[in-house]
Amino acid sequence: MVITKCWQCLMNFPSEFIANVNNVMLQLNKLGKDDPRRVIHSLKVSLAITLVSTFYYFKPLYDSFGSSAMWAVITVIVVSEFSVGATLGKGLNRGFATFLAGVLGLGSYYIVHLISSGNTIMESILLGIIIFLATAGVTYIRFLPKMKARYDYGLLVFILTYCLVCVSSFREHEIIDTAQDRVTTILVGGLISVLVNILLCPVWAGCDLQNLVSNNIEKLSNFLEGFGDEYFGTLEAGKLNKSLMQGYKSVLNSKQVEDNLTNFARWEPCHGRFGYHHPWQQYQKIGNLSRQCAYRIDALNGFLNNFTKTPKEIRSKIQEPCIQMSIETGKALKQLAISIHKMIPPIAAKTHITTSKIYATNLKSMIKTKLWEDTNLFEVGPVVTVASLLLDVVCSIEKLVESVQELSTLAKFKNKENNIAVEDQKEVPQPCCNSSGPQHVITIVPEDIVQ
Amino acid sequence: MVITKCWQCLMNFPSEFIANVNNVMLQLNKLGKDDPRRVIHSLKVSLAITLVSTFYYFKPLYDSFGSSAMWAVITVIVVSEFSVGATLGKGLNRGFATFLAGVLGLGSYYIVHLISSGNTIMESILLGIIIFLATAGVTYIRFLPKMKARYDYGLLVFILTYCLVCVSSFREHEIIDTAQDRVTTILVGGLISVLVNILLCPVWAGCDLQNLVSNNIEKLSNFLEGFGDEYFGTLEAGKLNKSLMQGYKSVLNSKQVEDNLTNFARWEPCHGRFGYHHPWQQYQKIGNLSRQCAYRIDALNGFLNNFTKTPKEIRSKIQEPCIQMSIETGKALKQLAISIHKMIPPIAAKTHITTSKIYATNLKSMIKTKLWEDTNLFEVGPVVTVASLLLDVVCSIEKLVESVQELSTLAKFKNKENNIAVEDQKEVPQPCCNSSGPQHVITIVPEDIVQ
Lengths: 451, 451
Hints:
By secondary structure, chain A is mainly alpha-helical. Chain A is 77% helix and 0% strand.
């Protein structure tokens, strides 16, 4: 029995193995297709390591550094990250921390050596105490959120170098030479890594952050542009791209990636359209507001699955302003995404938000009238909720527009492409009303526009 | 002018410096108070480093390992993480990767040495090509999400060791001895680090995950328990703990921490109440459902700031079932939190969810009646929305209960503390109705309970 099972396992192994390998190959292939920069990054890391290996291959170089050349290889491997910001951040952290810890370590050793005046037991005890206190202190400081975000790697390297210098100096006597060699090789390794990263197809975390924030807003826009037609069933089935609409779900959990990219972007020098002191943290703020909006949209999405429970004639009573609001807010978001992406002021978005606010006022007036007298409140409930959530979405998008406006001011966005704004102005906002409902003359009082 | 400014800056410097130092000290103090395990962790790392330093302090130990002792120190510093799971994960990754890369590196070197038969230029070219290909391949594999989550550090160490062994073997001739010393010291370093981490006040990622998921559910519960009274204004101002209610906001962005803890927990051996193959991924699932619920709660929270716009008499029409639903769902969540925390089946939670479903049916019946005939739909709208969101919350909590039930089955929770369930049974669910509204006889049809 056991033998038969083993035999079966053994017979199945090759086919399972091949299936697994095939699966992994497919995944690897997809990774490269999704973002070809990943392939380039792998080649860049290889190139940097090949370059740094010359420390070993060329005898004159090896003779001057000896086994310290190892530190150059280690540095290249550890520092090479995907984006310029991450590589620079790690490189600078490693460089400064190594230098500082080296100097402090040597200083500590000489003081201990002076105090213990040749007594090796006392020397080792004193060194032990100093190392204990320094490590405990720096390890504890690593818990500070601000330190963790930007200098965690530096603090780790500091502990590492400080301990190594202190304990090595106890045994090695040419410690100054060793330290000098190491610092030099680490600097060379870091430099090679940073240069390869910046000079060959650089991946800027700043650009990635900008694209992420802009794409996230576009995903929300895709949902809203489709929502009205989907909820009120005004478009033929099959014409709506449902998977495009569901893209907003990735926005809900994008905080961590945004925070990381912001941290990396802050290490990057001026590049492309991003100057010195570019307001990276404003992108974080915009990202948070996008998520606020995404939570509302998630609530709206819940109604897409239940909407058949409300008769179509009831839904149709507020169809017009709701569809228009959803389209206009979608357009506003799309313009915001373009504005962030192209770095132009969000003028077009403001136009759309003003239009959607007019529809919001219309919607409120319609709800205020006794349009519903003959209907069952239980059936009306979900429709009113959808309307109310849409009003809420308008509110949160208004905040988003303000925030992008702030970014535009801080980063001095310029209106290079007037055509976008002009093209947009053509769509004149027109007060609308449900054809079956009563007509209202609408006076828009700004404070009253959106609840 | 410039001199005056400089002088002012110089004069202000000490006071600013002292203020900054004070600020940092306050933050450090708070860190320790919030979680005293941080202080203990810092001391544990220090202890591990002091232990590993003996490689340098004791001559016999230093004589046998020489400068390879450095690798023990490096390993301890790099591997020592806060939780047992993270430390074990890093330690095992480092250990296996070093061993595998060492063996493969030596193998590659000997094959190259054999092929090039003494021609050093050809040898260096062949080694360069091998290193290039290996690095590019492994760096690319690091992008695979599954690999990144669990084996990222191992892959990094693999590249590092493989490159070091390959290039070192080109120059050093006692490479086998060096490799042996390094592997031994790395193993010793890893072992010291893991032992100190496990034996002295261990921090289990599994426990942290359990507490996080349970606390998050409790935060949602705090909101719901307070929501009814806050929205309908049935409690005196000052009696509600608003900051406690707003605690749910941290749940919205807890995904990353949960995912990390799950990854760490999977490295941990059996400990306390957690057996081998504990279903850690079920906690992730519960976490995701909690966040779904938190999004709805965030939408409800929006109405707390606007509720004064709806007259109290309108709100009071559905006050009774809404308050009861919000309290019962809150209690259900509290019981779920207790169930996860104490590892007992979620029986009590089921009772509360059944009660809240009865109130949900009541609420629906009340909305169905023409209770609102004389009212303005615009004023009723928000109230209906709140009711509908509450019904939605009941739905999502039901899913949460099922998921915790699944966890209870998978992890074989046992009902050790019957008193909780019994105490809970006392609260008999009673069909309720708004005193001002008509009385209904309610027949509960399971499929119809919650929309």
